[in-house]
Specification:
By secondary structure, the protein is α+β, with helices and mostly antiparallel strands. Helix content is 54%, strand content 14%. It has one domain. It has a three-stranded antiparallel beta sheet. The protein has a two-stranded parallel sheet with strand order 2-5. Helix 1 (6-17) packs parallel to helix 6 (98-114) and helix 5 packs antiparallel against helix 6 (98-114).
Length: 115
């Protein structure tokens, strides 16, 4: 079952409040999202708990110490990307994960208010 990752959502809100945001468009997420190598390096250096903070969803059926446990990434391990938030919002809506969709919409609104 996939549900909202409160830790990830709270982390994203703090980052947005601190201005740690890239104001980009949705189509750029495929270029801006971390590569598999970047993800593996981050996990090696910081662990899965920190890795999880960069995702809006968790899959409760997957092992916590696997990448498969974390869904809907929104940033590059330094900043929140508007394109990542938009991508998460659309994908969550398509999959009917209303809590994740609402969280992403909230983040989008926070980001857009900063412009």
């Amino acid at each position: 079952m996939v549900k909202l990752n409160r830790n990830g959502f709270d982390h994203a809100k703090r980052l947005v409040d601190q201005g740690k945001v890239v104001h980009d468009d949705r189509d750029l997420w495929s270029e801006h999202q971390p590569s598999t190598q970047d993800e593996n390096r981050f996990i090696e250096e910081h662990g899965f708990a920190e890795y999880g903070k960069w995702h809006l969803g968790i899959d409760t059926d997957a092992n916590v110490n696997t990448k498969g446990h974390y869904k809907f990434p929104y940033g590059d391990f330094k900043k929140v990307h508007r394109c990542g938030v938009l991508s998460a919002e659309v994908r969550a809506g398509q999959r009917k994960y209303a809590d994740i969709e609402a969280a992403a919409a909230h983040l989008r609104d926070m980001i857009d208010e900063q412009k």
